[in-house]
Amino acid sequence: MELSTLWRPPVPWLQALMLFGVLTVAPCASADDDYGKFNSPFRVYLGGFWPEMNSEITINGDVLPEVPPIDVEDFLGVDDNKGIGWGGVSWRFAQRHSAEFEYFSLKRNGGTSGTFSPPIQVGDTFIEGGAINTSYNTSVARLTYGFSVLRSERTDLQLKAGLHIANLEAGVQLAGRICDQSTVPMQPPGCPGAETRTAFEDVTAPLPHLGGSYTYIMTPSLAVNVQAMGFVVEIDSIDGSIAEITADVAWQPWQHVGFGAGIRYFKTRVEAANSELNGKFEFEYLGPAVYVHATF
Fold this sequence. Notes:
Elements: H1 3-6, H2 12-31, E1 42-49, E2 52-59, E3 70-71, E4 84-94, E5 97-122, E6 125-151, E7 155-179, E8 195-219, E9 222-235, E10 238-251, E11 257-272, E12 279-295
Antiparallel strand pairs: 1-4, 1-12, 2-3, 2-12, 4-5, 5-6, 6-7, 7-8, 8-9, 9-10, 10-11, 11-12
């Protein structure tokens, strides 16, 4: 068998891409052999991710017993894969000490209509048939302190602690055949028609977290990072939990600018009664992320 049948030269566009990589990455390696670009005191990043989301809400009433959860995406028709913008900043203020702030906000709307069998219960209200319009908003700010237990020019193993501040909002508007404490009958079947009811719940929950991260600088222009954080806590009347796992590859061909890609998993649960929330929120996502970062 001839060698030409085992290997074929790259197509022209691939040749150009390979040449671009040689011209950008190679000079960086020779110009910065001390891996200093990934050890800069400040790092600012901005990007987006496109996760598959799963959410549930439970809005309890004041009269009827607790209600079963409602699937926000599958049943209420809210988007389950909307893109999310996010960003943050990190600061290494001493050899082994660092701080990081990160934030994202997601607003989603949806709706469904038809005859519901069994009837849907939201708080003290049942809807047998009609339309349900929903908004589900999530905002999370994370502030984290990191202590490097193992640090060298190319590796950084950190223990981390901090606080997630999660703001969760859900609004549900019911229009159609509705039963509640003001109608006859008060419960299905036979709910009156042409009724409209609105339920809204929101909660801001401070959820502490503990975890760790590991960064390894493979070359002067390429590094990998993995991070995991989580906690379960009960604060006053709020019972909540949080879990966050990330894995990234960062490429920095220039002294102060680079790019990254990875995967992110996040889940939060907040449950409370007799407070600003009388019910439960659950929010979970998993998906890829890309970002651009600057170091200085």
